[in-house]
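Recall that a protein's primary structure is simply its ordered list of amino acids. Everything else, from secondary elements to tertiary packing, is in principle encoded there. The following example makes that idea concrete.
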Amino acid sequence: MARANLSCVLLIFVVYTVGLTGFITARTQAGMDFIRASCAGTRYQPLCIQSLTPYANTIGQDQRLLAKAALSVSLTQAQSCSAFVSNLARSKGLNSRAYLAVQDCVNQVGDSVNRLSNAVQELGNLSPSGSQDFTWHMSNVQTWTSAALTDANTCLDEFSRQTMDAKDKVMIRARVLTIAQHSSNALALVNRFAVKHRKGSTKP
């Protein structure tokens, strides 16, 4: 009798597990399809898909979660770049002009970190679609994301005019360019979310 009950419990567990796995797989697939469709409107589409695919199961088909994930990815990249450039600014061997350029970049990337952090937090404060508060919060998210992109581009422009160690220059530009590309994609997804929901639309 005990063995029969144990077999029954195991069977229920297996059925539940298979069903749950199927649900997760279906949600993940739906999320991946949603990400690919949404990233089609971004400037750096392959990067957009690659960076957001790990969050497919969490995102599902939720535009707010998609925008939040894109902003979070941008923030992570900005934080990593900020740490790298700050360490470089403290290193020896930079001439005075190169040091000033690196220091300016430290400040600009630091601003990007703050603005993207604000944008992520503000996205969590959104009121129901169509309300005045929604419009105000959404406008803040767009402004901060756009400003973070501007900061990254300003740093890139600064380094294009500077003469410094080629290796350092390449590494800094690569990291800042990554911030700019992720921020550009995030801004496109944020704007898409804003357009579709500012008037209270709930369509994907």
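The CA atoms of residues 31 and 61 lie 6 Å apart. Helices lie at 2-39, 45-52, 56-59, 63-89, 96-123, 132-160, 166-197.
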